[in-house]
Design goal:
271 residues, alpha+beta, Thiol Ester Dehydrase, Chain A, 2 domains, 13-stranded antiparallel sheet, AfsA-related hotdog domain-containing protein
Length: 271
């Protein structure tokens, strides 16, 4: 066993060029199992992939692009293996449970520079967003502040103190901004996507093109979204900003989700 939040064992001596690790699922974890779940949440797999990647020296670039698609529900009662390969055009990552692929993706470096996008700093609200809007039972796990609508965009400040702890620094920086974006998306789906409370929001996939460090000094991180019609909210692009005296775009996160009521969710789980 190694020290870490979501990885139990690592084998970084490639066998056939493949690095392998086993994912830790702790049902008492206060963040990933903030409330009762009947499956392993996708965010736990995201964090496990990032923690595994940092131990394998795959998070060294200043900016990374992580693509991950969830193909099946991850069950609570069976081991999970994560594996990756070193290839010239990126590092393919795969999660296997009971012989089946449950998630796969690619981790690489950002190949092109972002176009300079600078905006005035919006008037961020104090405190946190209501917990029911982001499906968190413990207020300490809320990763974003209240919503602010400014110049046609919706903004939230990232609460760095709510970052997922116990991770190496680069994995922590990437994981905490993805978790903040995930919670932001849940709020958007309720408020703009018109999804009622009680709707199950299933993580289908993500693409995160983000820095591997947290801004230092007087800078903070924020997220913004350009509103779209309700029928276009199943795949949302969230922009990532470093905020000082201006808000400078430093990355983006695209999250695809599927919303289901209790009946549809039961049918998905049975299938």
């Amino acid at each position: 066993m190694i020290p870490g939040r979501t990885i139990d064992t690592l084998d970084l001596a490639p066998s056939g060029g493949i690095l392998r690790g086993s994912v830790r699922v702790d049902l008492q974890d206060p963040v990933f199992f903030d409330h009762p779940l009947d499956h392993v949440p996708g965010m736990l797999l995201v964090v496990a992939g990032l923690e595994f990647a940092e131990h394998a020296a795959m998070l060294r670039p200043a900016n990374v692009c992580l693509r991950l698609t969830f193909t099946k529900f991850c069950e609570l009662d069976a081991p999970i293996e994560v594996s990756a390969a070193r290839e010239t055009d990126g590092n393919p990552i795969e999660f296997i449970q009971s012989g089946r692929n449950i998630a796969r993706g690619l981790l690489g470096r950002r190949e092109t520079a972002l176009a300079a996008e600078i905006a005035p700093v919006p008037a961020f609200g104090d405190g946190t967003i209501p917990s029911d809007l982001v499906h968190r039972a413990d207020p300490g796990n809320i990763a974003v502040g209240p919503l602010t609508v400014d110049a046609g965009r919706v903004w939230v400040r990232v609460r760095e103190e709510a970052a997922i702890g116990g991770l190496p620094p680069r994995a922590s920086a990437v994981a905490s901004i993805i978790e903040a974006a995930r919670q932001f998306v849940i709020a958007i789906l309720h408020l703009w996507g018109r999804q009622p409370m009680g709707t199950k929001m299933i993580f289908v996939g993500l693409t995160a093109d983000v820095p591997t460090t947290v801004p230092q000094g007087q800078l903070t991180r924020a997220l913004s979204w350009q509103p779209t019609p309700p029928e276009q909210t199943r795949k949302l692009r969230i922009d990532v900003h470093a905020v000082g005296d201006r808000a400078i775009k430093v990355g983006s996160i695209v999250i695809a989700s599927r919303c289901a009521d209790e009946v549809e969710y039961a049918r998905l789980r049975a299938g």
